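Per your request, structure below.
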């Protein structure tokens, strides 16, 4: 980054911190761009050079976090097992718990899922699990989407707690649940049969 880019990035960071400070004190709907700029001690025009509004500011934060996560992920030895990948994922977000917890409480964490779903599917190739090779491309995409959505819902339930379980416990719960689903296909089939009869 050149000097101008560094200044612009620093301004974006100040806007984000101002937004988070305001979000701790107010409902999302009551926060205006003017208030964010005032808290950041920057001009509204500077805000609009980087963001269209509050939503794009939130998207910027999640995109920045995802870029950091993927950079960290690709520094690991590959291919990764699902267990290792899950542990890395959970530890990464645990380090940002206070911010994520606030966004969850304000019902704003959905911004992350919109960004992450596409990027996660593009990055699943670094895992060595059989579900990535068994099935048609369409079937694999559905499985990957299911895993992605499930993981983020786990984050929402987990990090909203003031004293969340350690990541290793969450990984065990997640893997146990997947194994139970795989070992009881008759239960799923029975549910489908009942649904079709209604």
């Amino acid at each position: 980054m050149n000097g101008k880019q560094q200044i612009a990035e620093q301004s974006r960071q100040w806007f984000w911190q101002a937004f988070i400070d305001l979000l701790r004190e107010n409902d999302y709907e009551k926060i205006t761009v003017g208030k964010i700029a005032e808290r950041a001690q920057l001009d509204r025009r500077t805000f609009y050079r980087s963001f269209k509004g509050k939503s794009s500011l939130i998207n910027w934060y999640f995109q920045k976090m995802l870029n950091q996560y993927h950079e960290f992920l690709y520094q690991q030895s590959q291919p990764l097992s699902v267990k290792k990948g899950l542990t890395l994922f959970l530890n990464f977000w645990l380090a940002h718990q206070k911010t994520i917890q606030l966004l969850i409480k304000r019902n704003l964490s959905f911004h992350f899922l919109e960004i992450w779903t596409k990027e996660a599917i593009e990055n699943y190739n670094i895992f060595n699990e059989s579900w990535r090779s068994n099935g048609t491309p369409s079937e694999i995409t559905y499985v990957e989407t299911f895993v992605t959505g499930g993981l983020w819902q786990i984050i929402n339930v987990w990090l909203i707690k003031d004293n969340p379980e350690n990541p290793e416990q969450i990984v065990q719960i997640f893997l146990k649940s997947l194994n139970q689903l795989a070992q009881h296909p008759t239960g799923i089939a029975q549910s489908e049969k009942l649904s079709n009869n209604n």
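The chain has a mean pLDDT of 86.

Regards,
D.
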